Amino acid sequence: xxxxxxxxxxxxxxxxxxxxxxxxxxxxxxxxxxxxxxxxxxxxxxxxxxxxxxxxxxxxxxxxxxxxxxxxxxxxxxxxxxxxxxxxxxxxxxxxxxxxxxxxxxxxxxxxxxxxxxxxxxxxxxxxxxxxxxxxxxxxxxxxxxxxxxxxxxxxxxxxxxxxxxxxxxxxxxxxxxxxxxxxxxxxxxxxxxxxxxxxxxxxxxxxxxxxxxxxxxxxxxxxxxxxxxxxxx
Length: 234
What we know:
CATH architecture of the largest domain: 2-Layer Sandwich
Number of helices: 6
Shape: elongated
Oligomer: single chain
Strand content: 15-25%
Radius of gyration: 21 Å
Number of strands: 12
CATH topology of the largest domain: Alpha-Beta Plaits
Structural class: alpha+beta
């Protein structure tokens, strides 16, 4: 792979733009030697304006999504990509969310440019349970757990029953919900079916991977190999 293509794939610009970037002299190796179009030292030695390159593909990021951000690049408002370096939205292969969160849902969101990993995580057979922290408008009445776990609950406008889900009551208006699947607005619609309304919803884990306490809203980090493997444990 040529240096021009490598930089373009990492989102540093189109091929013409990265070619101009290289010819401007700001692409060097770790000794400061200016690189040309035909040079391609080891990835970890390449610098752009003195900074190391963004992580290569495959890459997995964990983002603590704030309220008010959508997961679509086509949305005219605030999107999760505004929380990342601008280049990340231009990477090839693209960086996509692994199971989207609604605009008003916060918490653990994974993004990757690894299509096989994405489909492995979201496939129901993966066993990657998703846990949500829920704040409700009205007190729980006591029947919700049985309803969610029954495997017979059919959401409005659907015909297929939901897979059994677990409800853990934390307080009068607070609970954890564990899902085996991820249908559109599922947690909110489940509580609506039970006669309640969700005020706040936060995803706190996927499989064995938990949102760390020290990752503030709007912050993100790259996952290690061990952290990625933990997704498939519980």
